[in-house]
Design brief:
The complex is a heterodimer of chains A (479) and B (705).
Chain A lengths: L4 H4 L15 E5 L10 H14 L3 E7 L1 H5 L6 H5 L6 E5 L15 H5 L1 H15 L9 H14 L4 E5 L5 H12 L3 E4 L6 E2 L4 E2 L6 H12 L2 E4 L2 H10 L7 E3 L23 E5 L6 H17 L7 E5 L12 H8 L5 E5 L6 H7 L2 E5 L10 H8 L3 E4 L5 H6 L13 H17 L2 H11 L4 H17 L11 H12 L1
Parallel strand pairs in A: 1-2, 1-4, 2-3, 4-5, 5-8, 8-9, 10-11, 10-13, 11-12, 13-14
Antiparallel strand pairs in A: 6-7
Helix pairs in contact in A: 2-18, 7-8, 11-12, 11-16, 14-17, 18-19
Chain B lengths: L1 E7 L6 H13 L2 E7 L14 E4 L9 H9 L2 H11 L1 H9 L2 E4 L5 H10 L4 E4 L1 H9 L6 H35 L2 H5 L1 H11 L6 H17 L3 H14 L3 H17 L7 H15 L4 H15 L2 H4 L6 H4 L1 H10 L1 H7 L17 E7 L7 H8 L4 E7 L13 H10 L3 H16 L2 E5 L3 H6 L8 E6 L19 E4 L2 H10 L8 E4 L20 E5 L8 H14 L4 E5 L9 H17 L5 E5 L4 H6 L3 E4 L8 H8 L3 E5 L11 H4 L5 E2 L2 H11 L3 H19 L1 H14 L1
Parallel strand pairs in B: 1-2, 1-4, 2-3, 4-5, 6-7, 6-8, 8-9, 9-10, 10-11, 12-13, 12-15, 13-14, 15-16, 16-17
Classes of the chains: A alpha/beta (479), B alpha/beta (705).
Chain lengths: 479, 705
């Protein structure tokens, strides 16, 4: 098990930037750029907004090599990070994703699955989260070291992984550092199966209760998840806030025009292909039929961009096989796209396909970006889904038709018609609808609120006078 | 040009992905070989993309050494053993620049190849392989050399270690094998060694189990038991001690013996359960469950001609009475309200319930369904697939009873509560899971009646029934009541105990018999050891010594010799008898039939040769058909206050095959006499056990109380 302990001693932290009297915020964000993960966009914007609000931000993530094992790296993402943000990369790796057989022990080589099962078992002993639980000691040690080096005024922790909560608690327990939990998709709510992931009495439940009770603020990505938490912890409802994922304006083309009649249409999907296989299968069936039935789609293409699989199964799973077989239907698989090139992608697409798992508790970050493009959106998800709520006012939406291939066929046909017919005014109206979801629009008020709570109404301009605010919150957390 | 070797142990589920990867390798000028541990034809890949071959050694080419190596090897190492025997594959992996495992089972083989080709990269998965190919693998010479030396040393060390381990294992196996343990000096020496001080529990327990196993298999059961028990006394861990003694007992049970250390093993498990009870009810339940599993093993009670339970029931279950955990299972929890009297303003709601076996219920159901003043429902707990698992796990019931509360208990309550709420009276047939489950929740004011037939008395289920929630327990005979109360003392202080005969429609058996039936003995049911058909064959042999007209008809399914070793041994002897007697026409197997009255028409003498019966319907049906009944004094109950002698008329019951033969000679001396005695037996059967007579007992039970 690689929990970082052996590598820890060799870690050299970047020198902290001294920026006068600015308060110090540690942002525990595993998945921070350059990790090529969808959560990296939110993390980048969060760090940037806190920096803009007057904080000295130290973002804590894991080594670049660790992401190589998963979905890879996107260095263009790092370009958008505020230069004042200090990034600490811990030498933590997912041992389960190791593919270099030379690094395996004979026992691991002999019984690989047993080894992984044992690894998960050991992880769970350390913290109730498989795969990541074993990182707890290293994360705790890292935060304590950072705090020793320079006093931390606020810790913002974003999950997943949930093991971050253990390190967060450690800093609170030992130094009473106030913290915000950016819970994104939550923990005790099962956003895929629409239910409870674990009981309050379980080990995970006890961790969650403990952590949320002492938190300064709790953020979630949508209203249904926030409601779940308000109902589960009514006494903490005043700390809950919805901070939607939103979209990055830099990824959106300045203008989108109707598809010229002489050019075949291009539909697009952008995102990691971690969807259930039947969902992808239903979409491809719907696409095949629509393309066969509708002359408007006769030569149309469906471009699928994003990572497929992780570790040894990267690029080699059932999704890849389905997509490969759909090549005859004009389905193109292009791999992942650097963040900086996303804007070009949307510029040449005529409609977008929103494939997303889960139900009423799931929104996905992609929906906001899709809306902001002003392109017609084909929804491929459960009808009872939070993306439907967000899209309900979007004029170029084909509606939530569920996952029946025949219904999806109709949705593709409607989107094709919209792609040709929607004029500039309609598209502008659609884009205007999305503007409320610009990422900074979502984050600025939340960051301001937390800053005021922790540092007092004077904000970071008078940080020295504000530790009292932190102490007040610390007391509130304890109660 | 780069050489890539891909090892696959099964045809990939995504063949398209493999094809695409092969195309990419080719575009990078790599030559690819795919080595398959399955028929390479299954891949169906264009041969221009890669050289594809199977490397599994066909079974017909396995020599003894290879076969033995395969037997010993863990699953994934077997693949490597095949790989290293292939000359072609050896060449491939030695010249490869990149070794790739396509699936998890191939990882070890690639790992071994990488130890022998230290120059090559080794990765798991196609995309990592493509990445490795694209990357620059120019390593410093020093590092490569270091890796080569380390790998060579590793191979040598592993080989030496493996050879050393094998030698030690072989030597130890031989030194502790049957030959040594069958020698008194060897057994004495090892018994002393296993009890020597300062041996860690882990090693002592392994040695003890091995010594016991060898001694028992060598026929020296006492020496084996001595070795196990002496070593076990030295083991400090309760769990390890229980494990050693249980393994020893199980070995003897597998061999068909009554283990000499059975009670030691049971006591050790119960001591472990008592120790665990305050802190881990789940583990405590597992230990009690193991104790019960040992004590109710079928070898002890069902597949031999005697049972320690019937010899001295009190002594047999004494360890359970001494255990806190075991006592807690039967602890009375009582009920909040007593059973309500039968309603007078509406029909009685009667729920008849069982688990799978409803053989003894048709007459009862038919009678009360026809009554306007009774509303009947029937519930087989096995019927609903969703709830069925709740009724099949004794250890879960034990876990619940020890914990006092569990989600399992809540589910059972949720399942059975509507039935309890609906019914005024619940008649539970068979005192097993159904009875335990219906007394798990408080039955409220519903009256609970449980009927115990026979096998349950030898089983653990009645010990999980809360008899303080049962109003009546029905037995089918006095001797079963006696046995049950000896095993379950709680019965004597709670429910009303009743003996009511089985419900049998005997009228349909009355048919005229041909004259030659006089010499035909019959048995209804001979599929188990308990029926002891060889006893009847012995009777037949005695008859045929004097008159070869006597023959035997065996009605029912064939003897089941698959239940255990003793059953197999018995079956072998029975088959020898049949092989001798069937060709002579002395024995005939009638087979299974739905029309037993027709089969019994040609039977002139009906025999019950069983060692244990609660009632023996087949015998009574034979008697009702007019056959002369001959009943062995069932040994399990012989000499006790109740048994075959108190259940049947004295002249029906015999002590031995010789006495049986005498009775048959006397009864069948003439046709008139045979018919007269048969007629009397039929009249007695009908007068005593026909449903028209016995139903009054049920009416009193269900309607009057």
């Amino acid at each position: 098990m690689n929990n970082g302990r052996t590598l820890w001693d060799s870690l050299k932290l970047p020198r902290p930037r001294r920026s006068g009297a600015r308060p110090h915020l540690v942002y525990l964000a595993i998945g921070f750029p350059p990790a090529a993960k969808s959560c990296a966009y939110r993390m980048r914007e969060t760090a940037n907004q806190f920096a803009a609000a007057g904080w000295d931000v130290t973002a804590v993530t894991i080594a670049d090599e660790a992401w190589e094992r998963e979905h890879g790296l996107d260095h263009t993402l790092s370009q958008g990070v505020d230069p004042s943000v200090r990034v600490v990369k811990l030498p933590l790796f997912r041992d389960d994703l190791e593919t270099d057989i030379r690094s395996f022990t004979e026992q691991r080589a002999l019984a690989h699955k047993d080894y992984l099962a044992e690894l998960r078992k050991q992880d769970l002993k350390v913290f109730p989260e498989p795969v990541f639980g074993g990182w707890r000691p290293a994360l705790e040690k890292a935060l304590l070291q950072i705090h020793r080096e320079r006093h931390v005024d606020l810790l913002v922790t974003t999950c997943a992984p949930y093991v971050n909560l253990a390190a967060t608690w450690k800093l609170w327990e030992t130094h009473r550092v106030p913290y915000v939990v950016d819970f994104r998709d939550g923990w005790s709510v099962d956003v895929i199966n629409n239910g409870e992931a674990f009981f309050r009495e379980s080990v995970s439940g006890q961790w969650e209760t403990k952590l949320l009770t002492a938190a300064v603020a709790i953020w979630n990505v949508n209203e249904p998840i926030s409601r779940w938490y308000r109902e589960r912890y009514p006494e903490l409802a005043h700390k809950m806030r919805v901070v939607r994922n939103g979209y990055d304006a830099a990824s959106i083309p300045a203008q989108v025009r109707p598809a010229p009649p002489d050019r075949p249409l291009t539909f697009g999907y952008l995102g990691a292909l971690t969807l259930p296989v039947p969902l992808l299968d239903a979409v491809l069936q719907g696409w095949r039929t629509a393309r066969a039935e509708d002359p408007a789609l006769a030569d149309a293409r469906f471009e699928v961009r994003g990572h497929i699989g992780t570790g040894w199964a990267r690029g080699a799973n059932a999704h890849a096989e389905l997509l490969r077989a759909a090549a005859v239907d004009g389905v193109l698989v292009g791999g992942s796209v650097p963040k900086a090139e996303v804007v070009d992608l949307y510029s040449r697409w005529d409609a977008v396909v929103l494939m997303v798992t889960g139900g009423r508790y799931m929104t996905s970050g992609k929906v906001y970006e899709y809306m902001a493009t002003g392109l017609p959106v084909v929804s491929a998800h459960e009808a009872d889904h939070d993306a439907s709520t967000v899209l309900s006012t979007y004029p170029l939406w084909t509606g939530a038709v569920g996952l029946d291939p025949a219904e999806l066929t109709s949705a593709f046909r409607r989107a094709a018609a919209m792609a040709r017919a929607a004029d500039a005014a309609e598209r502008e109206k659609a884009r205007a609808e999305a503007r409320q979801y610009a990422r900074e629009e979502q984050l600025i008020p939340a960051v301001r609120e937390v800053t005021e709570l922790v540092l007092g109404a004077g904000g970071p301009t008078a940080p020295q006078s504000s530790p009292a605010g932190a102490r007040v919150l610390a007391r509130e957390g304890r109660s | 040009m780069t050489a890539v070797l891909i090892v696959a142990t099964a045809a990939p589920k995504q063949p398209g992905v493999l094809v695409e990867a092969l195309e990419r390798f080719r575009s990078k000028d790599a030559t690819v070989t795919v080595a398959c541990f399955f028929d390479s034809e299954e891949l169906g890949i264009d041969p221009t993309l890669a050289e594809i071959r199977t490397f599994a050694v066909p079974a017909e080419k396995w020599d003894a050494r290879f076969r033995k190596a395969l037997e010993r090897a863990p699953a994934n190492r077997k693949i490597w053993l095949h790989a290293r025997r292939s000359t072609w594959l050896r060449q491939q992996y030695r010249r490869a620049d990149l070794l790739v495992a396509l699936d998890a089972r191939a990882v070890h083989t690639v790992w071994q190849m990488a130890q022998r080709n230290t120059r090559a990269g080794a990765c798991y998965g196609l995309v990592p392989a493509q990445k490795a190919l694209a990357g620059n693998r120019s390593e410093p010479v020093g590092k490569r050399l270091e890796r080569r030396v380390a790998a060579a040393a590793g191979i040598g060390a592993r080989g030496a270690r493996s050879a050393a381990e094998q030698t030690i294992r072989t030597t130890l196996n031989k030194a502790t094998g049957q030959r040594v343990m069958s020698n008194p000096a060897g057994a004495w020496l090892w018994t002393r060694a296993a009890a020597a001080p300062r041996i860690p529990d882990r090693l002592r327990s392994k040695l003890a189990v091995r010594l016991h196993d060898s001694a028992v298999r060598a026929g020296r059961t006492a020496a084996g038991a001595r070795a196990a028990s002496t070593a076990a006394q030295r083991i400090s861990s309760l769990a390890t001690r229980a494990d050693v003694l249980t393994k020893a007992a199980k070995t003897e049970l597998t061999l068909g013996h009554q283990p000499s250390g059975l009670h030691d093993a049971i006591r050790a498990q119960l001591a472990l359960a008592d120790d665990l009870l305050p802190r881990d009810t789940k583990k405590a339940a597992a230990a009690v469950s193991m104790a019960w599993s040992l004590s109710s093993n079928r070898v002890l009670h069902f597949d031999r001609l005697t049972s320690p339970m019937s010899t001295d029931p009190g002594a047999f279950v004494a360890p359970f009475r001494a255990s806190t955990a075991a006592r807690k299972l039967s602890q009375p929890r009582g009920r909040l309200t007593p059973a309500a009297p039968a309603p007078t303003d509406r029909p009685l709601r009667l729920l008849v319930t069982t688990l799978i076996n409803d053989n003894f219920l048709p007459e009862i159901l038919e009678r009360y369904r026809a009554m306007p003043n009774v509303e009947v429902r029937f519930l087989d707990l096995y019927e609903d697939e969703l709830t069925r698992p709740l009724a099949l796990s004794g250890s879960t019931v034990m876990e619940h009873l020890l914990a006092g509360d569990s989600s399992y208990g809540a589910k059972v309550e949720e399942w059975l509560r509507p039935h309890l709420d609906w019914a005024d009276t619940i008649f539970v047939d068979w005192c097993q899971a159904t009875a335990a489950l219906f007394t798990l929740p408080d039955p409220g004011s519903t009256r609970i009646i449980v009927r115990l037939h026979s096998f349950e008395a030898f089983n653990f289920w009645p010990h999980l029934v809360d008899f303080s929630r049962v109003d009546d327990v029905v037995f089918v005979s006095d001797h079963l009541r006696d046995l049950s109360t000896a095993v379950l003392p709680q019965l004597t202080d709670g429910p009303r105990l009743r003996v009511i005969d089985n419900a049998m429609d005997l009228q349909r058996y009355l048919r005229s018999k041909p004259a030659d039936a006089r010499f035909n003995l019959g048995m209804v049911g001979f599929s188990s050891v308990a029926k002891d058909p060889r006893w009847t064959i012995e009777v037949l042999r005695k008859l045929r010594e004097r008159d070869e007209r006597y023959r035997l008809t065996l009605i029912g399914s064939n003897f089941n010799d698959r239940a255990s070793k003793p059953a197999k041994d018995y079956g072998r002897l029975l088959n020898q008898d049949l092989a001798e007697l069937e060709p002579l026409g002395a024995v005939r197997r009638y087979g299974q039939t739905d029309d037993v009255p027709a089969a019994l028409q040609e039977v002139g003498v009906i025999v019950s040769s069983s060692v244990r019966e609660s009632f023996h319907c087949g015998l009574v049906e034979g008697a009702a058909s007019g056959a002369v009944p001959v009943v062995r004094d069932w040994p399990f109950f012989a000499g006790k206050p109740h048994g075959a002698r108190t259940l049947f008329p004295a002249d029906w019951v015999v002590e031995s095959p010789a006495e049986a033969a005498d009775r048959i000679f006397a009864a069948t001396a003439t046709e008139e006499q045979w018919r007269e005695i048969g007629q009397a037996a039929a009249e007695h059967a009908l007068k005593t056990w026909d449903w028209s007579v016995t139903q009054s007992g049920f009416d009193r039970l269900l309607l009057d109380d």
